[in-house]
Write a structure and sequence with these properties.
single chain; 0% strand; 11 helices; mainly alpha
Length: 251
């Protein structure tokens, strides 16, 4: 796991000019765009929170999940040369991706804390709760969910390459099915169940509820999301381990 984390870390910096600045540019750019389009033009409610901080909080959490999911889903294809030369537990690769992505999350979270402190200093109506101590659990929740689904998709793409081309579209669509650009409170009651089926809804709402003090998700809905994520992770491990035995015949 350590060797793969080191490999991914070094490779990223060798192949980029700006390096870790991309981790800063991306969420800030998305936040500015969301603030203008959804906040100023569409006038979508942010539950009384500063729009910039509302969208930034969603982008920070979503960034970690999307990166883990996208990279894990390419495990077999991206590492086929290594897998074909030497045997080692293949599941170490998805685990290393979840760990490597923590560096991205750390940088973006620090950016969030910087703007968070700025808004509080300027008297914004933000009321953090004691639930901020659950942030490590929120990260673990995201890691289990993204890694589990990523392993399932990786197992499928080992045989059906078309799925790898659809991942960008799927991740983009999934984002709009998650309360990133709108609060859960604004979802009509008849559609609420469809948004709550998405496990990432609980993650985003829990993060905002903890740090910004505004969330309309219930404790039972959060527990249901956690259980769903654990099940998906276990299913992902089982499917991944089965495919790894024969995937070299199809890759």
């Amino acid at each position: 796991i350590f060797l793969f984390v080191k490999r991914d870390f070094v490779t990223f910096y060798k192949q980029t000019i700006l390096g870790p600045l991309w981790y800063i540019i991306q969420p800030l750019f998305n936040t500015v765009v969301f603030t203008f389009i959804f906040g100023q033009v569409a006038k979508i409610s942010t539950d009384g929170l500063p729009p910039f901080l509302f969208y930034l909080s969603g982008n920070v959490v979503w960034g970690y999940f999307a990166h883990c999911l996208s990279e894990t889903s390419k495990t077999f294809i991206s590492n086929s040369q290594v897998f074909g030369k030497v045997y080692f537990p293949r599941i170490t690769v998805p685990i290393s991706i979840a760990i490597t992505s923590l560096f991205q999350l750390t940088i973006q979270f620090l950016i969030f804390i910087g703007f968070y402190s700025y808004f509080i200093f300027n008297g914004a109506s933000i009321n953090p709760t004691i639930n901020v101590i659950t942030f490590p659990l929120i990260i673990l929740h995201m890691a289990l969910l993204s890694t589990g689904i990523g392993m399932i998709i990786s197992a499928l793409t080992a045989k059906y390459r078309d799925l790898s081309f659809a991942m960008g579209f799927v991740v983009q669509l999934w984002m709009y099915l998650t309360p990133i650009v709108y609060p859960l409170s604004e979802v009509p009651e008849k559609f609420r169940i469809f948004i709550l089926i998405n496990p990432m809804t609980a993650v985003v709402e829990s993060f905002r509820g903890s740090f910004l003090g505004v969330s309309s998700i219930t404790f039972n809905e959060v527990i249901a999301s956690v259980v769903c994520s654990i099940v998906l992770f276990l299913v992902g491990v089982v499917v991944f381990n089965r495919v790894e035995k024969t995937f070299m015949d199809t890759v």
